[in-house]
Write the structure tokens for this entry.
Amino acid sequence: MDVQEPQEQFEQESMDEQAEEQIADSDVAPLPDPEPAAPSQAPDSIPSDLPPIETLAEGPAWYVIHCYSGYENKVRHNLEQRIETMGMKDMIFDVVIPTQEEIEVKEGKRRTVERHIFPGYLLVNLTLTEESWYVVRNTPGVTGFVGMGNSPTPLRPEEVSQIVKRMEAEAPTVKVTYKVGERVRIVDGPFNDFRGMVAEIDMDRTKVRVMVSFFGRETPVELDFLQVEKA
């Protein structure tokens, strides 16, 4: 699975209001587009004439499934129920929604929220067979596996490691709701309630440089991300 090539595809697929505001992070590779949508019905029995899987991985692996953004929790619930009722615990082992803690500032108040790292995507750990593919593929809300045709593409171990590392990060990230060139209000520190224009955003240092007017003169002021919000 190529890490760099599907970058633009995944970003376009996941581009909603939540994804537009999330913090860019090049450490975790985005995911490619899923296969076409599955049938709307989800029978509780597995047919005997399933199409063969073109490429079977040896042993359990992590796969990516796609759903509509905002329905991740519902899809996970649906899939976990089907694993139970259809007796697939020995083939489908875990369903994970990649999330991370994030600090955001709203109306001058800080709060910690849980954000989906890949809106519209879930990770499933399974042993790939025709039966396990069918159970996942026909779960209500699932629109496809990531992969080509009848051959889902497993994540490489290093990709899984990167995602887990991001999920288990001790320090929450900071949600940046403003861009260079936008007007912002300073909400903390000696320049509290001053307004200015964003001149530079340093993601590595979590600092923002704001041009503030003092005595009719524009002066750059360096601030922490959490000291600034959109005006």
About this structure: The longest strand covers residues 99-106. The helical segments are 7-13, 17-21, 72-85, 130-137, 157-167. The longest helix spans residues 72-85. The chain has two domains: 7-174, 183-230.
